[in-house]
């Protein structure tokens, strides 16, 4: 996967870091996104929501947000 690629902030052109964030109480959302270390601009990559349904089973919803914005415009191969 794209470990060798550098994602550049669309706002200020600085290097962005990859962030994994977990939030939620009843359902739990795991967000994967790029964040600019200079201006704080975020580019969402993937969002997973885990929830327990009424019959006790576990559901996982995956949302690939704005993937066209991330690829291929802002990835520069070294
Ligand atoms: Zn920036």
Task: Give a short summary of the structure.
The protein is mainly beta. The chain is built from 1 helix and 6 strands; from the N terminus they run βββββαβ. The site of zinc ion has 8 residues, from loops.
Structural summary, described in words:
With 78 residues, this protein is mainly beta. 5% of the residues lie in helices and 51% in strands. It has a 4-stranded antiparallel beta sheet with strand order 2-3-4-5. Strands 1-6 form a two-stranded antiparallel sheet. It binds zinc ion (ZN). Zinc ion (ZN) is lined by residues 9, 11-12, 14, 36, 38-39, 41.
List the helices and strands and how they pair.
Elements: E1 5-7, E2 16-23, E3 28-36, E4 42-52, E5 58-63, H1 67-70, E6 75-77
Antiparallel strand pairs: 1-6, 2-3, 3-4, 4-5
Task: For the structure shown, list the relevant keywords.
78 residues; binds zinc ion; two-stranded antiparallel ribbon; mainly beta; elongated; 1 helix; 6 strands
Distance between the termini: 14 Å
Q: What general outline do the C-alpha atoms trace? A: elongated
Strand content: over 45%
Average pLDDT level:
77
Radius of gyration: 15 Å
Order of helix and strand elements from N to C terminus:
EEEEEHE
Q: Which small-molecule ligands are present, each listed once? A: zinc ion
> Spans with pLDDT under 50 lasting ≥5 residues?
68-77
Structural class: mainly beta
User: What is the total tally of β strands?
Assistant: 6
